[in-house]
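Quick one, probably user error.
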């Protein structure tokens, strides 16, 4: 039966059980740390703002979640990077080199 489910694109029971387990773990982790969904969204927005200064990221596909591990609660961020931005110092130095010198005052 699993063979036919894969062919016709129906999710198996195992897949839906895994999704449910992950959702429950997220709810439990948020409950244990007392981090509300609003606070988690604020963290996400602030991380996007800071990281975007140095690298270009796919802001639509950023995912931030809480997970529970044997070592404790963890904030997990999945941030797709598109490319690095030019460092501000290098950009300023290039601009200095391309300026034309001003004539000396008499």
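Nope, works fine. Designed sequence:
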């Amino acid at each position: 039966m699993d063979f036919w489910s894969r062919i016709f694109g129906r999710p198996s029971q195992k897949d839906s059980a895994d999704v449910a387990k992950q959702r429950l773990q997220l709810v439990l982790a948020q409950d244990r740390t007392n981090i509300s969904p609003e606070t988690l969204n604020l963290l996400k927005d602030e991380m996007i703002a800071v990281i975007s200064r140095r690298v270009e990221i796919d802001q639509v596909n950023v995912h931030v979640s809480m997970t529970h591990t044997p070592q404790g609660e963890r904030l997990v961020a999945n941030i797709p990077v598109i490319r690095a931005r030019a460092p501000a110092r290098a950009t300023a130095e290039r601009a200095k080199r391309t300026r034309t010198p001003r004539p000396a005052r008499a």
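Strands lie at 55-57, 63-69, 72-78, 81-84.
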